[in-house]
Amino acid sequence: MYKKIIILLFSFLISSISIVSVVADAPYADDMWYVGDRSVATKSECETLTGESYNNVHAESSNGVTTNNGTILLNFRAGSFGDGANKRSFFVRSFDNGATWTDPEIFVMGHDSYSLISYGGLSVKCVYANDTIYGFCMFAAINQPISQSHCYLIYSKDNGDSWVGLNDSYYINDSALNLTSFFADHITGQWNIHGGIELSSGRVIVAAYTDEGNENIFTAYTDDIGNFSSDDWVFTGSIGSGQEFSENMIVELNNGSIYRTIRGDGSPNNRHYSFSHDYGDNWLLNGQQGANFFPYHPDMVDPESWASIARLTSTSDGYDKNRIIIVWNNATSRIDLSVGISYNECETDGYNSGFNVTKELEDPEDGHQYPYLLIAPNKTIILTHRYDGGYSGKTDIEIVQFNVEWISDGMDTVIAPQDNEIEFISICGQTNGTTIYLNKPTINWTVVTNASMYWLQIDNNNDFSSPEINYTDINEYNYPVNCDINTTRVSFTLPDSLPSYDRYYMRVRAYTR
């Protein structure tokens, strides 16, 4: 009999979790991979899709959504550069976390009176809210000065199989919500929506800009998008008026605030930013250049190009860390793209942006711009962008895919919550909270389906701040003598002794690698 008396309490505070880890192949940079032949819309494909000659084909302005059932929809515009009735929007979909994509399908057509906007913006901007994909379709008059945008809202409740607001020929019909008058009441000149999200409150908010005078930023939102009425939309007014700010996107923070990343088209060439602490009604100004300027990040160079931002994980959803991803041209020209992670909800000290883990997406062929981020259900990151490939004015839509491990050089891995929790079975055959007389006890807990290993911590502090036992790789391969796993339970005998008589707390996590 051992002299030490050990009391162990099993902690049920931690649910079982899995590590999402994807091994990359066909590298674009180390451990990054392309989808298929790197493009979902090559110049030759767009020639066939649009009926245009090869030399006139231009594909760009990709964006998309990930739906609750795991469908990823990516749309892009293709046709001749500039305005024209042939301007069309297409979409592709993936049902396997971005591994494969459907062939491009026509989404929305331009027509004789209006063309899908090409100047400075997206032709169709999709937002996922209320279990519905909403598409903001923006048009401009053909053969006239670009003076006013026309906006129609369409939607799909079946993950893109069918659309309310489009007829069988892919043209806007009377069932689309016409938002043109709503915006025209507030804005003169062309405007473009560049980012939209559903807040945790249910509010749908879009971030946009207008070229009235110098470009300036505005916001619009609705608290009842499902009602499909322009009466429910609120315009919050232009900000940064008279300054050269344009394309911008937004992300919700855990405290309910909103962070906005902004393209600045004047000096200095840095990413600008703003915060709203009242769900989009008001935005922080008073930057380094004056009261009507957005502040900028000195550590984020920007060659007058747009960026994309998206939340990867949130602790409020049970993940291990907060992670917000941004991608932009972190250089003086639109050549290579960089990707960054913020772990502190985009907090900034006035110089450091908070995106303190960054990596460049280098490619031997230059010309990558207009990026858009999509988060796959398995928490890999899908980046779509325009790829010039040395052909001025004739571009592809390209997809690359990577994970947090690649960005962080292996220092970070997504740990996501599972539905099933680990349950305590016994310790040395005894129930929870029992005094035992072994300093290398055998602990039994329920097995987690598809788990490849378990992480066990034992500490005499219930906050697990300094665990005496910390095994991160428990399975039968790593511990052939100490670990036994069957279909229902894991049995593990400590290889190392607990240090002394005490009251101990224990917790277990499951991993799938």
Describe the structure.
The chain has three helices and 36 strands. It has helices spanning 43-50, 180-184, 404-407, and strands spanning 6-10, 17-20, 33-41, 58-66, 72-79, 88-94, 105-109, 114-116, 124-129, 132-141, 149-156, 177-178, 191-198, 204-210, 216-222, 233-235, 245-252, 258-264, 270-276, 296-301, 308-313, 323-328, 337-342, 357-361, 368-375, 381-387, 396-402, 414-417, 424-427, 435-436, 442-446, 453-459, 469-474, 483-485, 489-493, 502-511. It has 513 residues and is mostly beta strands. Helix content is 3%, strand content 43%. The radius of gyration is 26 Å and the shape is elongated. Strand 18 (258-264) and strand 19 (270-276) form a beta hairpin. It has two domains: 6-15 and 418-511, no CATH class; 17-416, Neuraminidase. The strands form nine sheets. Strands 30-1-36-32-33 form a five-stranded mixed β-sheet, with no helix packed on it. Strands 8, 9, 10, 11 and 12 form a five-stranded antiparallel β-sheet that branches. The longest helix is centred in the N-terminal third of the chain and has 8 residues, at 43-50.
What is the β-strand count? Answer: 36
Number of helix segments? Answer: 3
CATH fold name of the largest domain, please?
A: Neuraminidase
Task: Look at the structure and give the CATH class of the largest domain.
Answer: Mainly Beta
**Biggest sheet record:** 5 strands, mixed
The neighbouring-strand order within the major sheet is 30-1-36-32-33
Our measurement of the CA-to-CA distance between the termini, rounded to an integer number of angstroms, reads: 40 Å
Uncertain regions spanning at least 5 consecutive residues: 1-39, 118-122
Q: What Rg is obtained from the alpha carbons, in whole angstroms?
A: 26 Å
Q: Return the structural class.
A: mainly beta
Name the helicity range.
Answer: under 10%
Strand content: 35-45%
CATH architecture of the largest domain: 6 Propeller
| Count of structural domains | 2
